[in-house]
TrEMBL record:
<dbReference type="GO" id="GO:1990204">
    <property type="term" value="C:oxidoreductase complex"/>
</dbReference>
<dbReference type="InterPro" id="IPR019574">
    <property type="entry name" value="NADH_UbQ_OxRdtase_Gsu_4Fe4S-bd"/>
</dbReference>
<dbReference type="Pfam" id="PF04879">
    <property type="entry name" value="Molybdop_Fe4S4"/>
</dbReference>
<dbReference type="InterPro" id="IPR009010">
    <property type="entry name" value="Asp_de-COase-like_dom_sf"/>
</dbReference>
<dbReference type="GO" id="GO:0008863">
    <property type="term" value="F:formate dehydrogenase (NAD+) activity"/>
</dbReference>
<dbReference type="InterPro" id="IPR006657">
    <property type="entry name" value="MoPterin_dinucl-bd_dom"/>
</dbReference>
<dbReference type="GO" id="GO:0051537">
    <property type="term" value="F:2 iron, 2 sulfur cluster binding"/>
</dbReference>
<keyword id="KW-0479">Metal-binding</keyword>
<keyword id="KW-0411">Iron-sulfur</keyword>
<keyword id="KW-0560">Oxidoreductase</keyword>
<comment type="similarity">
    <text>Belongs to the complex I 75 kDa subunit family.</text>
</comment>
<dbReference type="Pfam" id="PF01568">
    <property type="entry name" value="Molydop_binding"/>
</dbReference>
<dbReference type="InterPro" id="IPR006656">
    <property type="entry name" value="Mopterin_OxRdtase"/>
</dbReference>
<dbReference type="Pfam" id="PF10588">
    <property type="entry name" value="NADH-G_4Fe-4S_3"/>
</dbReference>
<keyword id="KW-0004">4Fe-4S</keyword>
<dbReference type="InterPro" id="IPR017900">
    <property type="entry name" value="4Fe4S_Fe_S_CS"/>
</dbReference>
<dbReference type="GO" id="GO:0022904">
    <property type="term" value="P:respiratory electron transport chain"/>
</dbReference>
Amino acid sequence: MKDFILPDADFGTPARRSDRTVTLTIDGFEVTVPEGTSVMRAAAELGIEIPKLCATDSVEPIGSCRLCLVEIEGRRGTPASCTTPVAPGMKVHTQTPKIARMRRGVMELYISDHPLDCLTCSANGDCQLQDMAGAVGLRDVRYTPGANHFETRQNGEANPRYIEKDASNPYFTYDPAKCIACYRCVRACEEVQGTFALTVEGRGFEARISTGASDFLSSDCVSCGACVQACPTATLQEKSVIEMGTPDRAVVTTCAYCGVGCNFRAEMKGDQLVRMVPSKDGKANRGHSCVKGRFAYGYATHPDRILNPMIRDSIHDPWREVTWEEAFEFTARKFRGIQEKHGVRAIGGITSSRCTNEETFLVQKLIRQVFGNNNVDTCARVCHSPTGYGLKTTLGTSAGTQDFDSVEHADVVLIIGANPTDGHPVFASRLKKRLRQGAQLIVADPRRIDLVRGPHVRAAHHLPLRPGTNVALLTAMAHVIVTEGLTDDDFIRERCEMDAYQDWAGFVAEDRHSPEATEALTGVPAEEVRKAARLYATGGNAAIYYGLGVTEHSQGSTTVMAIANLAMATGNIGRPGVGVNPLRGQNNVQGSCDMGSFPHELPGYRHVHDAEVRGMYEKLWNVTISDEPGLRIPNMLDAAVHGTFKGIYIQGEDILQSDPDTKHVASGLAAMECVVVHDLFLNETANYAHVFLPGSTFLEKDGTFTNAERRINRVRRVMAPLNGFADWEVTQHLANAMGAGWSYAHPSEIMAEIAATTPTFAGVSYGLLDREGSVQWPCNDAAPTGTPVMHEGGFVRGKGLFVVTDYVPTDERTGPRYPLLLTTGRILSQYNVGAQTRRTQNSIWHDEDRLEIHPHDAETRGIAEGDWVRLASRSGETTLRATLSDRVSPGVVYTTFHHPETQANVVTSDFSDWATNCPEYKVTAVQVALSNGPSEWQKTYSERARAARRILPAAE
């Protein structure tokens, strides 16, 4: 285990970027820094720490605390070093008798209105006020006790300035009695998070921080933790620190939630995790976090975790605990028996987008080398497989083009089919900051997401298109760009295939693709489409960010190609501030695809038809690899129902809750002879399992994740696996039980095999990642420290390929029986199927899935706020409570899918993307009506789930 020094260095003010530098002298030492740097930061670069309270390098300085005073030769007075920029030849003195005297005077004032309970304070040893009192040599306070904010009573009466501690937030407390009015929390909420949930009430001595609500829980606070991290005292304090004490060491690792890939310092006491603090060196998050990554790690030690392997002969039997050896032997015997009876292709597996690259690589290797087939798939099948197909076809590589820093250079941002504030909140904060600086925003979404109209950011254009009409809308935008001469002809001529471009340009220029002709189809006013298209094409650097609202359609791949067409036509690709950027849902969706988790591709997106690539792996693994693609997840389920697919190993995915048409998934699983679930909890899929192999959390393993920007981040073991094994070890034991003979001793050895066989990872090693912090693939001899921006000099495929994107209406249609369209999405506090976040206090914000319905649609059905309603489709029905909202348009309803009690996917259809089989979650024809209670399916499912979770008591 590699420990890291606590805490991160604080340079006092943010770093400045400038091509010009300034040289100055501080306390006799010369230092050269970028122009615009503060004196405080320049001193910190030298290792000279100037005392400070209101300054921290995550927010802009305000110079209010007066503790960082310095003397500058040739200047009068004692300026604040945090707000004083460096100048050439400047000579600064940070320690003089005059300054020392003034600093002690300032500290006396602070301490005179602060409780002196340091020995029992939860921040003892981790308090900047305490540290600064020592740094300035304060030994006594001369002021007679008077009016203050920390005594509950004064002169025998209640102190009107005293405010009770607020413990309403599940993760941190707010104690106004210890506030020093430095305003760091307010500035962090504004500048870092962009929520503006905190403000200052009162003036002067009466000033105190306020949420503008009765407490933190009922305020606009999104619990990102930025205020807690910025607070220099115990005013804002994690409850975990209050309960467990100050951590004494830390390990830097990577968050296991969404695809942003935030780096954190897991701060520890012994083997107990005290808190997660976002790392300032994290290149994806730059020291910021969200409520999930910052606080929702309690699932790792939740009592629901299964820590012992279990088996059963029938899914109707209770589970019985066995040793690991028994579980591996039982599984190997079952799988070998199936293959002997039904053929080598009768089994397969699913890799996990929550597991590491190394673990995913081993699962696909297990299936190809040991199972002897290509029946491997991953959750990207049901989320971003169209991204892989669409971007590889047009640009030549199956990944986004930029790094997250790129958004700082964007002038126009088009968000389509994504809700960053809920799904990718740390990126959303960076985007909102850029919007506040003047960038323009276009949102294409059936629902009015927070970015469309908020108190501090607002979209220039909201295109509330009808679900399922993405292709028609994007083609209409392309029509405007082409017919109005807004294309970048030089870029197209130099970088793209001209014949394909001319075909595409002629296609989009047809009158039938004009905004006026498609308005009735998309529901978006033609003039708004025209204005949005002109802004995207002419507004400067224009970037596109998209999510599952693009990919989870019958035309998902077509939409991705339409997006790439727009970027190429306007030259918005190949430099900072532009590009095509898929916002990946899970932490390692990109990595699971990179590692060869698709049935038609080996690692590095190389087709199984490629004899040279197959030959390399055949020689290395001493097997023959089939040149025929294996089965996708829906094909596996179909084959199981038809009796030809009999066994599956599922690592870290809950397909019964996450995949579409739940009844069909259940039928497929029930028809199999051996279902192996490798996970943390007895999830919904485990209802149909015969073997349960306990999984390990990201805190219990070493490895790497690859985020949405192709960034390969280290995952480092924080604590020993509670189940005894990391996930890669479990897969290795299973492979060896089936005769593989693997002997990996550490995940670094697996990465070495990945690097030796995968061109885009050729230069990757744990040593490199430890030195650089992270790198973005491709990382090889041509790019030894990675590639932040793709396609700079040319496209990976050579010339960019424009693809004609015909709009084909989905087969899922509304009608008299099912007149509404259902679309689905996520919410900030919960994650994916909720298996992790539902086992944390995040459920205080979202304890059930609700159906958003427009007031007009609700009124015609007699539905009031909070009523139980029946949501029915051609596939099935469920019940949930209604929320009336004009965020959705009339005719559209919306729900999340985080809770198994609702099982929203019981109503989704089996329609899918034409190229990849990605399910059409976003377009389901439904009817909504008042309900008296759970549907018959919910009742039956609940009983089945309870029965499937029976565990026999351990033998004496």
